[in-house]
Amino acid sequence: MPEVKPxxxxxxxxxxxxxxxxxxIPEQPKQLLPLTAEETMLQLTARRTxxxxxxxxxxxxxxxxxxxxxxxxxxxxVETQAxxxxxxxxxxxxxxxxxxxxxxxxxxxxxVMPSDHVIADVDAFRxxxxxxxxxxxEGWLVTFGIAPDAPETGYGWIKVGEALAEGVxxxxxxxxxxxxxxxxxxxxxxxxxxxxGIFLFRADMYLGALSVFAPAMLVAAQRAMEKAxxxxxxxxxxxxxxxxxxxxxxxxxxxxxxxxxxxxxxxMGWSDVGSWxxxxxxxxxxxxxxxxxxxVIMIDAENCLVRSEAGKRIALVxxxxxxxxxxxxxxxxxxxGRSQDIRKIIEAMKR
Amino acid sequence: MPEVKPxxxxxxxxxxxxxxxxxxIPEQPKQLLPLTAEETMLQLTARRTxxxxxxxxxxxxxxxxxxxxxxxxxxxxVETQAxxxxxxxxxxxxxxxxxxxxxxxxxxxxxVMPSDHVIADVDAFRxxxxxxxxxxxEGWLVTFGIAPDAPETGYGWIKVGEALAEGVxxxxxxxxxxxxxxxxxxxxxxxxxxxxGIFLFRADMYLGALSVFAPAMLVAAQRAMEKAxxxxxxxxxxxxxxxxxxxxxxxxxxxxxxxxxxxxxxxMGWSDVGSWxxxxxxxxxxxxxxxxxxxVIMIDAENCLVRSEAGKRIALVxxxxxxxxxxxxxxxxxxxGRSQDIRKIIEAMKR
Lengths: 351, 351
Description:
The structure is a homodimer.
Chain A: E1 8-13, H1 41-47, E2 58-62, H2 66-75, E3 82-86, H3 92-102, E4 109-114, E5 118-119, H4 122-137, E6 141-146, E7 157-165, E8 168-175, H5 180-189, E9 192-202, H6 203-213, H7 215-226, E10 229-231, E11 234-236, H8 239-243, H9 250-255, E12 261-266, E13 270-271, H10 276-282, E14 291-293, E15 295-299, E16 305-308, E17 313-317, E18 322-327, E19 330-335, H11 342-350
Parallel strand pairs in A: 1-2, 1-4, 2-3, 3-11, 6-12, 14-16, 15-17, 16-18
Antiparallel strand pairs in A: 4-9, 5-13, 6-9, 7-8, 7-9, 8-12, 10-11, 18-19
């Protein structure tokens, strides 16, 4: 067995989602907000992989957020080895390629994590990482499988196959964003997991897989990094070269095609906090089922999620199961269970 | 029958209610807001009694609002004969005394109107005034009775007695803010009306009644007006003298005690707009039962009242029967039917 190298965390901070509008906006997306704790999602993500088993992280982000990211990481004493500032978004597969190249491209394991997920049980996460490492060192690409508790149609699913080692299974099949009936079937089957979007593999194995399944992506990433501008920890890949890369997710471009892909099912209190409902579900409620933050007055209110940004006061009387969020000049009001409908608001605002 | 003098409208603008918080605040109470139309409640009230039958109005107000009142009346080309600026609030009876004195105290009829009520059918109102005038000229104190459509416990009620003339009845009894069961009884009886807070009587008859039933009030008002400071149309009654007046409503101090009190029952689309629910009830709804004003986005919303002040945007999805108001730095959310509970919020904010 080869020498165990420290794991290099790769934090993907490319998202600019609007699913938590009006709090999450392109200038300050979800990962840069303190949604579930005093610390931001990015800070929590970075601190999750500090310790002797881990090297300093590589962060891949939108250039627009460079200052905020450095400030937030400095505030929790996380020192990066590189901050890669994408000239344009090309989805996750090329972003991870940039990071794998920045990591040196060798046999060091890289742990790819979205910057905006919650993991409540960090010990379980680390145990899962530990379980995966021997297969990773043998060249397997590993994903982490979340035990599903709802027939989610917005996630990718994994059919968990035969055991390869203690706690590690072959991926039998990926199922991307299934229809409702298929999701319910998979939930009932007991042998499916959600694809949590967290990956562990050797940098060289990932780049090698790209060379087989998405060579144009590998070439574009390599050229962009060769011509990159560097300043301290900041790396600006060459915009012209990177623009040549196809845009695709790691799931489609690599994981669903590669032959040696494993999954580590893990119950670790995972959430992608993909909606206000999801945030309510993972937040600690008061005795009335309410979750509030900021200057909020609630009288006879139950099971509400209320967030008020600085300088605004929200008063609620006699309401149940309501989500109320005030941020900037915007105020959102919708019932729990409807937070997917935020896209309708975004569309209405565009018109 | 004596010569018919023009009626002097007396507009009471003393209120600083919080029932329409956060829109209505002490600095800009309900009567100074455009709640039901493009014009403010004060403007609508003043314009309701323009015409050859009416003299220029006398306005009694909180000194703090003097500029706003003058600007609003000028904007709708209403010229006052006096703007009496109360040094302190002493309820309606002393305020009306100040106005009766400013009117000259003679036999001219004065029409006392709160500045923050809605009257949808102005013709019906004027017809009621016309019906009352002969008795007013004979010295009767007249109030207008609103046909009740709910067992309101927050209003004063009137038992309508025998007919004195076409459309004018003796007041059999006043019932102040009854308990619920009593209100239901009166509603069912068919011979009760709400006391609308609008009065018509000769200035001298009112002052004479005060002399009998509330002499200290009369003396204080007279002395305050004798020592008043005057500047253009503005009159500042002497603060020290006016402070000597007892504080009481015209109902308690005079109407419930005087022997010759009449009521003109009238259906004129009256509302005191005493709550957000009341405002919703009198507002024109869209096809989904919604009433909105300002920058509001509604998707799948029904029977909601939504008001957004300048610079704020409210987005609602999938909610029913909700009141949402954003003004200043405050946001109010409560279900329809609960708007009386605003006082609970005000209390909570004080703590």
